Amino acid sequence: MDRVILIKYGELSTKKANRNFFINTLYKNLKNKLLGYEVKIHKDRARMYIEFLEKDLDSIKNIVSRVFGIHTYHIAYIVDTLDSIIQDKVLSSVKELDFKTFKIETKRSDKSFPIHSQDYNRVLGGLILKNIDGVSVDVHNPDLWITVEIREKSSFIYFNSYKGSGGYPVGTQSKGMLMLSGGIDSPVAGYLAMKRGMTLDAVYFEAMPHTSIEARNKVITLCRKLANYTDHINLHIINFTPIQEEIYKNCREDYMITIMRRMMYRIMDKLCKKYKGLVIVNGESVGQVASQTLTSMNVINSVTNLPVIRPVACFDKLEIMDIARNIDTYETSIIPYEDCCTVFVPKHPAINPKLGIAIAEENKFNYESMLDTAVESLNTIVITSTEENKFSDLL
């Protein structure tokens, strides 16, 4: 073993009594994501590092970059904590690199190492200046930043820093139930919820034949992209057609969207109870459409006592689109297949609906039995990023 992937925890380091729980969860998540690779993962309270085969480096980097709980990671040489060995490795490794200016930063967590950090910076800097022609020190804007972390048994030497996904490891919080449509916002909301440590089940409301199999497949693709950031996601598919058709036949046009969303929230409430979800997660953004004004949210939200988390509530559309591009959901989201929220859109939906009117309109049909039927007849797919999906009576 010559090189390892050195992982730094970032936000996890702020934890005190629960720190081991967060680190152990990160360790478990990494281990699950790296199944099939010949790796060894070592952990302690300060750092984690992965032994790997050089041929797998690019693939493993791609996976590590998407595991929540990692602030930064480095491709580092690992050597015994002996002055002569460290000097030899620093010199031999920098000789392979092209640079004109450099800076040394020594971090001496092992206080028994006989040379202080600042002194060791000068030792290593002098070694490079003596043995490599045409280079100089630049402490402000160097071409090459050389970091040496001196620890009790093994020390790390690296010249790079890769940004991790940050946040908390998935599984350090309880489960949320994500309302996943085929649009841009809800996959971003799911990503941000997982970044705070939540495990997620996703719920898709479809209205065949008014919506298509392509619309469903689009949501499956989005779910698979989100599964890159976790172990797996259960996608629950709700047949919303009977409910939506009853709304269309019985309710006044300007309240259709309000009542439709109230029915969805009622179903989400039932699903949370069924699958032990503690919160509803969705992609609502304040004021973006008629059902997302504060008045509408209040009327719609009143059908459940569960917390509703809206990770993108205060983002503008361009900010949400930027995140969607970064997590590779944007191009899928803009494929023009209609979902049930766009099938029966009225020309002039109520933007400031009244709760009393909404209740009166929805009481024009017997929705309670229809909600129970929708929940009892759902189909579930277990979505992973790398394995074939496991179907549950879907087709």
> What oligomeric state do the depicted chains represent?
single chain
Helix content estimate: 25-40%
- Count of individual domains: 2
**Biggest beta sheet attributes:** 9 strands, mixed
- Give the terminus-to-terminus CA distance: 49 Å
* Poorly predicted parts: 387-395
Which range does the strand content fall in? 15-25%
Q: Radius of gyration, rounded? A: 27 Å
The CATH architecture assignment of the largest domain turns out to be 3-Layer(aba) Sandwich
Order of helices and strands: EHEEHEHEHEEEEEHEHEHHEHEHHHHHEE
Give me the count of strands.
16
The whole-number mean of residue pLDDT values reads: 92
| CATH T-level fold name of the largest domain | Rossmann fold
Task: Give the C-level CATH assignment of the largest domain.
Answer: Alpha Beta
What form results from the Cα inertia axes?
elongated
Secondary-structure-based class equals alpha/beta
Question: How many H/I helices?
Answer: 14
CATH 4th-level superfamily of the largest domain: HUPs
Task: Give an overview of the whole structure.
The protein is 38% helix and 20% strand. Helix 7 packs antiparallel against helix 8. The protein has 2 domains: 3-163, 2-Layer Sandwich (VC0802-like), CATH 3.30.2130; 175-392, Rossmann fold, CATH 3.40.50. It has helices at 19-33, 57-64, 83-94, 117-131, 185-195, 213-227, 241-250, 256-275, 294-301, 317-326, 330-333, 340-343, 355-362, 367-376, and strands spanning 3-8, 40-43, 48-51, 72-80, 101-108, 136-137, 144-150, 154-158, 162-163, 175-179, 199-206, 233-239, 279-281, 308-309, 379-383, 390-392. Residues 387-395 have low confidence and may be disordered. It is built from 14 helices and 16 strands. Strand 2 and strand 3 (48-51) form a beta hairpin. The chain is an alpha/beta fold and 395 residues long. The strands form 2 sheets. Strands 1, 2, 3, 4, 5, 6, 7, 8 and 9 form a 9-stranded mixed sheet that branches. The chain is elongated.
